[in-house]
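Good morning,

Both structures are done.
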Amino acid sequence: MKRIPVGSIILFIAALLWAFLSFTGIGNWSTRVYMSLFFLFLIIGVINWRMTDRANSD
């Protein structure tokens, strides 16, 4: 696995922000919503990383 693309880094940072909101209780939504958004952004970031890695493997 090569370097992480910028899009995946942004998605990982967004996922960490969702986790931060979940654990601090800041915001209007429930913890379940924040954690599901955390996992969603994390999974999309990993998929983006792997697909970019596969596309650049020539």
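Second structure follows.
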Amino acid sequence: MAILGEAHDTVILDLCRAAIAFGRGEDPAPFLEEASASLARRWDVHIAADWNLLSGRIEAAHGAFAAALSHLSEAVQLTRRTGIDGARAHAWRAVCLANLDRHAEARRALAEARVAATRHDNRRVAGILAAAHLSLGERDLAGSLALAGYREAWADGPQFSWFDDLRVCTDVLAELGLPPPELPSFDPAGAPRLPFEDEIEAFIAELAARPRHGGPTLLQLDPMLCEPAAEPGQGPPPQPGPPAFALNGRVKIVTDAPWQSDVNGLEGVVFWREPMQEHTASAEKQRWKYVVYLPAKHEYRTLIERHLTALDGSVEPSFFFGERAEISYNVVVDDDSTIVEGCVRLPGETWRTFYAEKTVDLADASFQTFDWENGLRGLAVKMPWGVPMNKAALQQALATFLGVEQVVEAPGPDSMMIRP
């Protein structure tokens, strides 16, 4: 319990304050900026997803649908990477796309929102779906969803309701000329007191009265996982210096970072490198990140420059060529997946990125190869909407397209780190 009083992280509180300010009609920007600064110091993919979702929601409320779409697309990517509920992000993307007259994309986002909502039993998303259908001109469907969403968001009634969801539903119903349903409100005076309620309230008062002793100790996660945006007026980041390690060069991990303790001391080979775009960096700071293959663990790891030291020698590019057709995944993949990212390689070739998505009005899988600006190759895959896009289905489709007997899952580089 002492942690609650002295060393808790404030980033979630900043997000809550931003949401409250937005709900009150006040400026949420200072709290979002504080949360962003906290993420720059300590990256957390779940909080980053929440930050982008809230930022996108606020931009959408101001009619800045293109800016909102950028945040919401990032939130979708983060939820896919972790397997957490992305229904709300998909639904708000649908609202933005509909208002930008990108109706086909909006309907795909609606379908993805429904899939995620069903998987996670998220019924509160109905009001946002209603707003999207209203923007698409589908008034009857918008009305039924808004009524269902209103009842779900009402919960026990103000002040015990889901405020923003209730507001979205109310706005949709008002636009449609429909009255909100009459629902009972919770009467706190008639509720029995909880066990230990008096003790809990006394402890909360005690915590509030305690003096604070400095800020929390923050885990310093690799900045490669969070390249912070510029502060207002800060300008572009400084140009990075030359990289310390060559492609295909041998390196050794030397670090005291706890999150890299499992690979400290291991030797590896540089597969890929690229400069970071960190606005907070000084000119002399080492700002390159590297994707390194570690033979002892048979895995690829992304590291920043200061966690590596050079070894003598290098390997030929063919060191990374496959002996069989292989695939690696960067997101959680199951029967409900609609978008999958990862890397593939063929015998005699190195890794290339792939991006697969399910598409409506498509009878058969389609494939397109292309070259990224950084010289790596990519593969775009489209699969029919009506069939599962799990690992087995995707690997079978890729095997047919690539002309191999089978594609085997294997450790590979993080495609999100090596593509532009």
